[in-house]
Structures are given as C-alpha cells and as structure tokens.
Amino acid sequence: MLSQHPSPVGEGRILVIDSDAEYAEMMCTALRRDASEVSVANSVRTAVGHLRGSVPGVVIIDYGLEGSPTPLEFADALRRVQPEIGIVFTSEARLSVVDVLACFRAGGDEYIEKPFHPTEFAARVSAVARRACPSLISLSDESEDDARDPASWFQFDEGRHVVSYDGRALDLTATEFQLLAELHRSVGSIVPYADLNGRVLGVENEREPAGSLKSHISSLRQKLRVAGADPDILRTARSVGYALAP
Q: How large is the angle between the packed helices 174-185 and 211-226, nearest 10 degrees?
C-alpha cells in the first residue's frame, strides 16, 4: 500500500550517478527529505555494480560523465533491459537542442539543467517516478500463472551442472551452464562483461565482450529459444554487459 504522504519519488530506490560530490550530495538531500532510499555512484562503470540484485525505480545520470560506456550508451542499455525504469539526465553545461534530444532518444524521461532549485528538482524526479511506478507495483492481485516471472521457470542442479526451462532439459556446455547461472543469480540486472569474462572464461580485466563470450551467448540464446523461452529473455546491454530479463 502507498502511504498517504509518499516521498517525492514514490516508494522506489533512486541511484544518482554524478562525479561532482557537491551536486550529488545536494540531490541526495533533496530526495531524502521524505526518507527516500538514495544511493550514489561517481561513474557509469561504478553504477553497474549498484544495479546488481536490486534495480532502482529511477536513475539520475550526469550527461558530462566521462568513460566507457558513455552516459547515453548506459541509458540506452538500461532502457532495453529495464523498460519500466525512470531515467533522468542532468548537465551543468548548457546542452544544445541536438544533445538534449539525444538524451531522450537514449531512453531519458526528463532533462534537468544545473544549477537547479532542490524543491523543483525533487518534484520533477517525482513526476518521473510516478510514471514508472505502475510497472513496479506488486503483482499480488494477479493469478499465480500470470504473475510468474519467466526467470523462475529455470530449475538448476548445480551439483550435476544440469538446468531445465519449464521442465525441458537444456543441452548446455559447461561454459553455457556457468553463463546462465551467473545471469540467473542477478536476474533483472546487468552483469558486466568484465564479470562474465573473469568468472566464466577466466579472462581477467577484460571489459569488452571477448569473441568467445559472444559465441557462447549466441549459442545459449538459440538453445533457450528451442526450449520455448521468450526470445528476448537474454538481453544485450550494449557496451555494458548482458542480462537475464525479469
């Protein structure tokens, strides 16, 4: 149930991605006034770690962040993996119309220029959160079959390295089994290329999808399709990693 006095961002978590500590603290203060849960990452790369396990309702991204993936690439990847999430871009530099449009084309819901008034900032983020909330509401009122998450259709036998989907055994190689298990442990969140390269392939410090990783993912997708899984259940977060969709 929603409280009669909701926080400015509803009941979801918020992730602020900004390398400017002063602005990050200002945003957190504005958003926490009504006890919202807000976390901060100082880079896009760091933000990926915050998305493991628990996906926020709203992500606020500074357009000027440097590094790979870029803020636009990250937003595009996040939107593809989590279509319901709210994405807000901010920028201290005045952006051209072309750049602002690029933010929206990458999946942004709102653009807020710095400096801003904290109350207005919180209100505009709140509006984004309200639009995102309907798809984040619990499915408790639906029937069990309708509410069933496709990811819950997997049955793993870690000891025997055997997995089935909706009762159908998947004929996977040892590497494909490990890949699927890693993605399933973080269902709904992006697993970075570096994590998969290191944990599954034993290739450390590789932040791009090695050719062998792409090949294994492609084969795994095909086998999931044969078993009747949704073709979009295994998603590519371009320039970031892969995700098993919720």
A: 80
Query: And the tokens for 154?
Result: 């997997």
Name which of 54, 49, 55 is nearest 79 in CA terms.
55
Identify the pLDDT of residue 195: 87
Say whether both 101 and 168 belong to one domain.
no
Looking at residue 101, its pLDDT comes to 94
Two structure tokens written together for 190: 């992006």
Look at 2-16, 44-58, 74-88, 106-120 and tell me which has the smallest mean pLDDT.
2-16
Residues 173, 195: Cα–Cα separation, whole Å: 19
**CA dihedral over 23, 193, 219, 153, signed as positive or negative:** negative
pTM to 2 decimal places: 0.61
CATH of the domain at 173: 1.10.10.10
Dist. CA 245–CA 9, nearest whole Å: 24
- Number of domain units in the chain: 2
Residue 170 DSSP symbol: P
Beta carbons of 13 and 101 less than 8 angstroms apart: no
Q: Read off the tokens for 147.
A: 């509410």
Q: Tally Cβ neighbours within 10 Å of residue 144.
A: 7
118-132 helix and 21-31 helix, angle to the nearest 10 degrees:
70
CATH at 47: 3.40.50.2300
203 vs 225: CA distance, rounded Å: 28
Of 136, 160, 186, the residue at which a domain comes to its end is 136
CB 203 within 8 A of CB 210: yes
